[in-house]
From TrEMBL:
GO terms for biological process: regulation of DNA-templated transcription. InterPro entries: cNMP-bd_dom_sf, HTH_CRP, RmlC-like_jellyroll, WH-like_DNA-bd_sf, WH_DNA-bd_sf. This is Putative transcriptional regulator, Crp/Fnr family. PROSITE patterns: HTH_CRP_2. Keywords: DNA-binding, Transcription, Transcription regulation. Residues 148-210 form the HTH crp-type domain. The keyword Membrane does not apply. One of its GO terms (molecular function) is DNA binding. The keyword Transcription regulation applies. It comes from the Bacteria. Pfam families: HTH_Crp_2.
Length: 218
């Protein structure tokens, strides 16, 4: 598929006409990367706006003891790059980002994107929505790490990332949620006992979405 056609199939670029699609395609490139590829490291400066077209990535930080601290997943199609200011010509990454499956990334020249689109009022709303999503992810992180109980943490991940939950080992989920494996088991058993979830061969299915939602909104 031509890059122009790829762009036109995405909601983010759906408001652009053919000429505008050709323009943005002229200073963009789509590249496929293998699983575990490091997209960028924390505090890296870049002149490229990165957009995940296909696949899944994860954002994380490394603490002073060299431990990985999970932040959130990035699902296609969505913005990868962190944008803290419209005025700067370069973008600085807030975290490390790596791919957790084979993925395709759109690389857009950020300076030209600002000049030809944002400065002219094009794609401003779509761009702002992506920035707001980044802010919501940060709020979710704060809730998960400082506000939520263990039960709420598990319920949130089941509600928001069920496919990912089922693809990971229980030990990996415990690390992501910063809870003990035994605690995770107890929470899952409680949710199953309350007929909120069911499990077969370690795969979770949600039986009562409203009840699950109520668990982490208590």
């Amino acid at each position: 598929m031509l890059l122009k056609e790829t762009l036109s199939s995405l909601d983010f670029f759906s408001s652009l006409n053919d000429e505008e699609l050709e323009l943005i395609a002229s200073f963009s490139i789509a590249t496929t990367y293998d699983k575990e590829y490091i997209v960028h490291y924390e505090k890296t400066q870049s002149t490229s706006l990165l957009f995940l077209l296909e696949g899944v990535a994860k954002a994380y930080k490394i603490d002073k003891h060299n431990n990985e601290i999970f932040l959130h997943y990035i699902y296609a199609p969505s913005l990868i790059s962190d944008v803290s200011s419209y005025k700067k010509e370069t973008l600085i990454s807030f975290s490390n980002v790596s791919l957790i499956e084979d993925s395709k990334i759109l690389n857009i020249d950020y300076k030209k994107f600002k000049e030809h689109f944002l400065a002219k009022g094009h794609l401003c709303q779509e761009f702002a929505n992506e920035v707001i999503l980044k802010s919501q992810q940060l709020q979710s992180l704060i809730n998960r790490e400082f506000i939520f109980t263990s039960v709420a943490k598990v319920a949130t991940m089941l509600h928001d990332d069920l496919d990912m939950f089922n693809s990971l080992k229980r030990s990996e989920i415990s690390l992501i949620l910063n809870i003990q494996p035994e605690t995770l088991s107890r929470v899952l058993n409680r949710l199953k006992r309350d007929n909120i979830i069911d499990s077969k061969h370690t795969k979770i299915t949600i039986l009562n979405k409203e009840a699950l939602l109520g668990v982490y909104e208590e």
